[in-house]
Predict the 3D structure of the following.
Amino acid sequence: MSESGSSNWAIEATDLYRRYGTLEVLKGVSIRLQRGKMVAIVGKSGSGKSTLLHILGTLDTPDTGTVSVCDVPILNLSSTALSSLRSKHLGFVFQFHHLLPEFTALENIAMPSLITGKSKREAFNRANDILGYLQLSDRASHKPNQLSGGEQQRVAIGRALMNEPDIILADEPSGNLDTETSIQVHQLLRRITTEMGKSLIIVTHNNDLAALSDEIYEMKDGMLFRSEG
Ligand SMILES: Nc1ncnc2c1ncn2[C@@H]1O[C@H](COP(=O)(O)OP(=O)(O)OP(=O)(O)O)[C@@H](O)[C@H]1O
Ligand SMILES: [Mg+2]
């Protein structure tokens, strides 16, 4: 939730340019994510959706342009300040869940807290609460390969929630799932936005799933267009 004195924007990015060699991927992209809203970004493969999401998530830097996350301009932040901002404000969900295979669902969810050296008991209590919210309590001690694709992705969402981020960035979180399971994952993210007051950007190929969002943008020719949805 917004702290007092903070603006209405979870993320503000202005006039982003990014090229790889001679390939201009972003050619002047601006986007603002309102606090508590869910925004979808659609667009063809190779149109620059992941590039944009990585920049918004401070995992990559633009050639020019500015990004603020929770009112903090990230330009010129040291790498330590950047990673602390990231672990405080941002949660990531990717197309492939990237769960650690040798750890249980509960441990995977608790991991972001455990690696910052917080108390184990607190971490596992919170991870248990999250598992309950995700309706996965009966899968707590299962390893990733003992979970279905949809369950694995829900655990990955749980892990993204662990540090209580203000913002969740999801890059094709259902790209690898069947239609019904994809809908469940998108509905879960919608619920998280509404019930927990998170701000969320979701990249998807699927226009029907994008329609669950408050706003839809399309990446095209290096630019972002507001879509009527
Ligand atoms: N590290 C990199 N080095 C060189 N080119 C890159 C790099 N990352 C991405 N690209 C290129 O930039 C363009 C945009 O890639 P990006 O991954 O952002 O697209 P996307 O919209 O996410 O595609 P998809 O829907 O397939 O995930 C592509 O042409 C890609 O080949
Ligand atoms: Mg991509």
Q: What stands out?
A: Helices lie at 49-56, 79-89, 105-114, 120-133, 149-161, 179-196, 207-210. The first helix runs from residue 49 to 56. The chain has seven helices and ten strands. The chain has a mean pLDDT of 94.
